[in-house]
Amino acid sequence: MLTKKISRRDLLKASGLGIGAAILAACQPKVVEKIVEVEKVVTQVVKEEVIVEGTPKIVEKVVEKVVEAAPKERVEINFATPGGLGLERTMYQNFVYAFMEENPDVKVNVSFESWADYMTKLPTILAAGMTPDVCHSHWTIAMDYICNGAFLDHMPYMERDGIKREDFIVELMDEFAHDGKQYLIPKDSALYGCYYNKDMFDQWGVEYPALDWTIDDFVEKATLLTRDDQGRPANDPNFDNTKIVQFGCAFIDPTFAGDIPAGFTNALGKHWFEPDMVTCNFDDPAIIEYWDLTRQWRCVTNFMPTPAQAVGQGDLWRNARLVAMKFDHQQNTFFAKQEAVQFKYDVNPLPGGPNGQFSPAACSAFGVTAKAPHKEEGWRLLKFLTSEDTQRWIGEQKRWSVNRPNIMDAILPTDGVPEHYPEVHVLPWSEGYTGNLKRIAMKAPVGMAKLKTLYQTYLDPILTCGSEDVAGAAKNMKTEGDKALKESLTTCTW
């Protein structure tokens, strides 16, 4: 049926014509209109000849009927991501259900793997051509895939749909960008700080750290909090390092493939790589100092446990037995609350150095693959997963942090614990921050896998207390690292 809106003027005009028509009708044979409905598309007008009974006269009448278009064939897309059993997989599955409810023409098949299995299988899946439409990538490996054409440039889609890079935490967007192209979009954020057990500090009379503490302050407190079975601190001449019952801090693997160490190296004066991402700074004095400090913390001062000392302990900080401090992102708060830890705790920014105090951040991301069978539908799923509404919901569930600076408040604890959570995990990455913490996000060079192998060769012996030649290891890392990065770039297709 035609449902054109009739104005008051049209209504009055039609009324006048209707009166005249009624007078003429009294002098004419009765007209019986026989209307034949013709199926049509709503934008078309169909004219049908109608026989008027009692007269050979033929009149023309416009008849409309809306015919619904045939339903589109439902498109199936594949989405691959690591996801832990339980809450994490349930959340992802619920996202997919919500997306399909809003997009009934798309069916999403989700493939879950454990984190380790996903990282192992992804290269094989992509190389074999069994490409998912949308898949996950971590910052440490993303550039290796990007340089070889595994992901679409999403900028044309973003520009078409009015999505700006500035809508997201730009530093995290940069982790997955190259030459003005955006290959993946962050799905979360990991914002780091130092968690400390206030009960352990209180037990040994150690003052809580100030927000603007330094690396020297950290070393002093970690040393005092490391105790042997007689309660002696690690700086006591009679301290027995074979009978340590409490360590000052959980070990931080000082690798360029970690999120936390860049906060230390930058505080000391240097980032792992030059901005060109093909030049390593492994032989810079600041990097050497950091690597040597870590060696001392584990092998000399003994305030960080070795793997053997930590084995079978679960989370070394949340078990409230082995370590007084731990560097971690906001998820540590979420887990502490889920596990209902029974000790008092707080969180501090990373300690500062001569070059300032830094807030390191990292993330994972989702992207539409270059060989996706259904790129447009994959983009719609990607938009949904990284949208403000979905991200806010994620933050409110207190599972991950969010990818947008305007909704950082979504991850705030509702009970105000830990006290300094906002200063560490929220404010530095929110809009309009003017504090003293300098933001730094992780970006891996092409060839990160080769650098990891070099790290195992040259740094592992030092960090397992088998060697003290940090400068020699750093020199080898620099020479072979630069060569590995340049060689890796020769295989790129971007």
Bin the helical content.
25-40%
CATH class of the largest domain: Alpha Beta
Counted beta strands:
16
Overall tally of structural domains: 3
- Structural class computed from helices and strand pairing: alpha/beta
Low-confidence runs (pLDDT<50, min 5 residues)?
Answer: 1-48
Tell me the CATH topology of the largest domain.
Answer: D-Maltodextrin-Binding Protein, domain 2
Give the arrangement of secondary structure elements.
Layout: H1 8-25, E1 46-51, E2 58-63, E3 75-82, H2 87-102, E4 106-113, H3 115-127, E5 134-138, H4 139-147, H5 155-160, H6 170-174, E6 177-178, E7 181-182, E8 185-186, E9 190-197, H7 198-203, H8 215-224, E10 227-228, E11 244-249, H9 261-268, H10 285-299, H11 307-310, E12 323-329, H12 331-338, E13 345-348, E14 358-362, E15 364-368, H13 375-385, H14 388-396, H15 421-426, E16 438-441, H16 448-458, H17 460-463, H18 470-489
Parallel strand pairs: 3-4, 3-5, 11-12, 14-16
Antiparallel strand pairs: 1-2, 5-15, 6-7, 8-15, 9-12, 9-13, 9-14, 10-11
Identify the notable features of this structure and list them briefly.
18 helices, seven-stranded mixed sheet, D-Maltodextrin-Binding Protein, domain 2, alpha/beta, single chain, five-stranded mixed sheet, 494 residues, disordered N terminus
Give me a quick take on this structure.
The chain has helices at about 10-25, 85-100, 115-125, 140-145, 155-160, 170-175, 200-205, 215-225, 260-270, 285-300, 305-310, 330-340, 375-385, 390-395, 420-425, 450-460, 460-465, 470-490, and strands at about 45-50, 60-65, 75-80, 105-115, 135-140, 175-180, 180, 185, 190-195, 225-230, 245-250, 325-330, 345-350, 360, 365-370, 440. It is an alpha/beta fold and about 500 residues long. The strands form four sheets. Strands 9, 10, 11, 12, 13, 14 and 16 form a seven-stranded mixed sheet that branches. The protein has a five-stranded mixed sheet with strand order 4-3-5-15-8.
